[in-house]
Amino acid sequence: MGKILAFLIWPVGLAVIFGVAALLARQARVRPAGPGRGARLPWLKDGPVPPTADGTSGVWEAVRQAGLFLLIIVAGVALVFAVMALLGQLVRHGGPSVDKPFYHWVVTHRIHQWKGLMHSLTKMGNTWSTRMAVLSAAVCLAVTWRRYRWLPAFAFLVLSLVQRYLTHGIHLVAHRVGPPGFLHGTYPSGGSGRTVVFFGLIAYFLWREFSGRRVTAIWAGAAVAALAFNEGYSRVYLGMHWSTDVLSGWFYGILLLALFILATRVVMGPARGPEKPVGEDPAVVRSAGNSVPQPVGPAQPARAPATSPPRSAAASPPGQRPVMDGPQ
What we know:
Strand content: under 5%
Distance between the termini: 119 Å
Oligomer: single chain
Helix content: 55-70%
Order of helices and strands: HHHHHHHHHHH
Number of strands: 0
Number of helices: 11
Shape: globular
Largest sheet: none
CATH class: Mainly Alpha
């Protein structure tokens, strides 16, 4: 029975993720769209794009925007490091009471065939797997983006360096002995964090360029959450990480992903949704005084005003003047 429960965690977790996504997507379809964040937060409005021959930013403008991007990342990295270092102390002292019983339960209830499959699936969060995914995405986005074509490759490069050295710094200040066979550098789970931040940033770049719809964002987030859950589950099932290391890795990846999304929005502005026809835009209808458009048909010929027919003179016998109506 325990082996079945340990196995069922995986499909049940994925079912919960996509079930919640389906509910959120259903609500998003019936909910009217409000004002964008660019209207509520002026500093998140669309960034300026100097007119050039190919429609992309000029060299000096790109340098200035890259400097702004790096400034936001540096400030955010310092904050993320402080948060993760503090969380590491809490995990080191409070985690073993939860981690060790759960680890022993999972190890004693493994299924051999399922363990072999997890060995293959957990490679998705390895360093080289994420690097190849990022490299492919950077090339594709550089070709398909209509503006700021330098930004995806630049962001992925900065993220690769930040994730590597920031994680190493966290290991130094919050070193934690891992499970048997994986004793060094287990907090936070690197595979879980990489899956969230790298695949999440790829999904965000694709979404903001080719969709911008709220429903698409929900399903893209669900896909990334499913990949991250699979990575975390496989690491725990194989005994590579403590369970709190995986939870911390997810949180760490979310912090980095939020930081890079914020920096992208400051440089580029919020994502633009699909354009609507003027007749279907509620704002246009409201600005017209809530008037209901009337159907326009083919032009009708103008009608002459109705007049009473002239009253003719009454018939008179021959030799007599006709009797006329009215005053004489």
